[in-house]
């Protein structure tokens, strides 16, 4: 339930109001941006909420319970506010958004309507629309261990204990086309060593953006070809420096042979699969089904 001041309640009760919406957007890198659907800038809580961004809100619904709800905000793409390149490069992924209802004549009278996170963003030629997910969507995310054959830890996290920097290298861009980045690495690597890993740009229009490697092919010497799942939005210039980190397919053989970290493997490789569960004893079976170990 919203806690309204007497002044704000009186303004809401009027037939004509001086109210507008403001959005405070906090990115994961710490940058704070403000937007408003009013026709001039507004300032409160140390944030300037920019007008003329073309940002507008859709109808919002609220209900009791823990079901996740969504609203939508739409606006224009511009270099001064939200650029297409930043949206494509994931700069705004999971950003925290505060939605305010503000009296533009007296910004001290305002209501915090909701706190949401930025979800799916759809881009048009000159505009975008962003899904705003309520905090309840965090309850939809898996929690706890997952019992499966593959490892359920992420490379470099506290459970994996690998230092990703020890399996990283740098490279300089040579060419980019057709979604494939050709570069010279600091040292030659086996083909597929970087598959499933990441590429982080250190300079240029994509500086700070990280992309997942779809495939890695090592050519002659230190020359390598990297294909992305999602191509960078900004231009890649000759000599642009990137940091590349190895990928992990979460199998026990990769953990043992590639990273030497089998002692910290967090999967269950000897877990019987569905084929073993539904199998039945037979005279032609090579392996006895007598309840004993499957790996003796």
UniProtKB/TrEMBL annotation:
Domain Bacteriophage phiJL001 Gp84 C-terminal intervals: 194-275
Pfam families xref list: Phage_BR0599 (PF09356), Phage_phiJL001_Gp84_N (PF09931)
Transmembrane segments: none
Matching InterPro entries: Phage_phiJL001_Gp84 (IPR011928), Phage_phiJL001_Gp84_C (IPR018964)
Domain of life assignment: Bacteria
NCBIfam families named in the record: phg_TIGR02218
Official protein name in the record: Bacteriophage phiJL001 Gp84 C-terminal domain-containing protein
């Amino acid at each position: 339930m919203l806690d309204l001041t007497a002044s704000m309640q009186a303004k809401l009760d009027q037939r004509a109001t001086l109210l507008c919406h403001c959005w405070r957007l906090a990115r994961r890198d710490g940058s704070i941006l403000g937007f408003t659907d009013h026709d001039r800038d507004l300032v409160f809580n140390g944030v300037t909420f920019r007008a003329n961004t073309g940002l507008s809100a859709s109808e919002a619904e609220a209900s009791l319970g823990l079901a996740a709800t969504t609203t939508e905000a739409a606006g224009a793409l511009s270099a001064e506010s939200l650029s297409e390149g930043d949206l494509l490069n994931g700069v705004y992924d999971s950003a925290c958004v505060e939605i305010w209802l503000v009296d533009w004549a007296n910004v001290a009278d305002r209501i915090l309507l909701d706190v949401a996170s930025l979800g799916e963003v759809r881009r048009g030629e000159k505009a975008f629309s962003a899904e705003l997910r309520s905090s309840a969507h965090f309850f939809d995310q898996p929690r706890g261990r997952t019992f499966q054959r593959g490892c359920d830890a992420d490379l470099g996290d506290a459970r994996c204990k690998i230092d990703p920097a020890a399996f990283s290298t740098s490279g300089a861009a040579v060419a980019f086309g057709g979604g494939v980045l050709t570069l010279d690495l600091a040292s030659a690597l086996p083909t597929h060593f970087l598959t499933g890993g990441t590429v982080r740009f250190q300079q240029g229009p994509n500086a700070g953006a990280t992309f997942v490697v779809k495939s890695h092919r090592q050519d002659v010497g230190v020359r390598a070809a990297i294909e992305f799942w999602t191509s960078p939005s900004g231009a890649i210039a000759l000599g642009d420096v990137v940091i590349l980190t190895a990928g992990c397919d979460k199998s026990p053989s990769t953990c043992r042979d590639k990273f030497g970290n089998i002692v910290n493997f967090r999967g269950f490789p000897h877990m019987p699969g569905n084929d073993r569960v539904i199998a039945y004893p037979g005279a032609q079976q090579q392996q006895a089904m007598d309840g004993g170990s499957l790996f003796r």
